[in-house]
Write a structure and sequence with these properties.
Helix content is 26%, strand content 26%. Strands 7, 8, 9, 10, 11, 14, 15, 16 and 17 form a 9-stranded mixed β-sheet that branches. It has a 4-stranded antiparallel β-sheet with strand order 1-6-3-4. A two-stranded antiparallel ribbon has the order 2-5. Helix 2 packs across helix 3. The longest helix is centred in the C-terminal third of the chain and has 19 residues.
């Protein structure tokens, strides 16, 4: 890990770990020049301790094993000087996960997976500055799992995606290797259905629309991401939105992710001039629309106190069950703080219309 990468993690580990649809190398093998032809699943199994051939075959089937940067099948014959890599849509960790008895709001659970309704403020993954009190610590306790630094892949092996610390909503958890690899592949292939509810500044002109713009880290502020409209930097990102309710100075919208980039909704809505309400990273924690009167400023301050975070909730999640192959959908209620904010704006808008 180079120094710049270390600094990024130190500055903002939670967002740094939220990169989706990005592959991270976990293992790399440089094949000896005297190596005889051998099936790649057998080769990797022989060169990795405490890892079953079945697990390797699952990784190959999911497209996470590459030779010279190209995806290969399980019957690929390893040749001398081949460069083999195993890549996954999550980063390796290098520290012990300690189980902690933290309450979880479990929406659904079976032998293969579970869905958690994460409250705002809960960090998802342990990291620099957050070694305890995270969702992973809670899941380790719930599932009776603990891994030390010698764990075969240096992680819990259960989370397949993440949401921001101050975003609430549904998170999908895999409980075994088959589920983890299958669900991770669905996220990587953009076949997961995800809908969010957000409150944004301003009265959006269209009732629905699509935002397309590459998203990458802002070179002027390493804690932020930005849209690169020319498409020469960042990663391709697409967000679809639909207006749910209008309150004049703010709008409640439903956002559907076609891709899943770090801060995607927050960045895209800010890009079109409608930052999320009280999003301090992208300017939504200031009065961006409305009057100059002191009474209105007090109203906004009260709104910020009701919802002391960005107004964003991961409401629904749809995917193909890794075992039954059934397409399943789950929904979660908008949390109390967002509901209170929306109701406060609804009353304000009604009062304005009556004056």
């Amino acid at each position: 890990m180079n120094r710049e990468r270390e600094l990024d993690i130190d500055l903002n580990v939670d967002e740094y770990l939220e990169e989706e649809q990005q592959l991270f190398e976990h293992y790399h093998f440089d094949v000896d020049k005297g190596q005889s032809m051998l099936r790649i699943d057998k080769y990797i199994t022989e060169h990795m301790e405490q890892t079953s051939r079945h697990r390797i075959q699952l990784a190959i089937e999911a497209g996470f094993v590459r030779v010279g940067g190209k995806i290969v099948k399980a019957n690929y014959k390893v040749k001398p000087l081949d460069k083999i890599s195993i890549v996954m849509p999550y980063q390796k960790r290098g520290f012990e996960v300690r189980p902690e008895d933290i309450p979880l709001d479990i929406v659904y659970e079976d032998e293969d997976l579970l869905l958690v309704n994460k409250p705002a403020g809960l960090v998802v993954h342990p990291g620099f500055g957050h070694f305890s009190g995270t969702l992973i610590n809670a899941l380790a306790h719930h599932l009776g799992i603990s891994q030390d630094d010698d764990a075969e892949d240096h992680r819990m092996g259960i989370l397949v995606h993440r949401i921001d610390k101050d975003t609430s909503g549904l998170l999908l958890v895999a409980k075994n290797d088959i589920s983890q690899l299958n669900l991770a592949k669905q996220f990587f292939d953009h076949t997961i259905d995800r809908k969010y509810v957000a409150v944004v500044w301003g009265n959006i002109k269209e009732d629905s629309g699509t935002i397309v713009g590459n998203i990458g880290r802002d070179p002027n502020d390493r804690l932020r991401f930005k849209v690169f409209p020319d498409g020469d930097q960042g990663k391709h990102a697409v967000t679809h939105y639909k207006v749910i309710e209008r309150f004049g100075y703010v709008t409640v919208v439903e956002c559907v992710l076609e891709t899943g980039r770090t801060h995607q909704i927050r960045v895209h809505m800010s890009y079109i001039g409608h930052p999320l309400f009280n999003d301090d990273r992208y300017g939504g924690n200031q009065i961006l629309k409305g009057t100059i009167f002191a009474k209105y400023r007090q109203f906004i301050d009260n709104c910020f106190k009701i919802l002391p975070r960005q107004a964003l909730h991961a409401k629904t999640l749809g995917f193909t069950h890794p075992t039954t192959k059934e397409r399943v959908f789950f929904d979660s209620e908008i949390p109390e703080d967002m509901n209170n904010l929306i109701e406060k704006w609804r009353r304000y808008a009604n009062d304005m219309r009556e004056e």
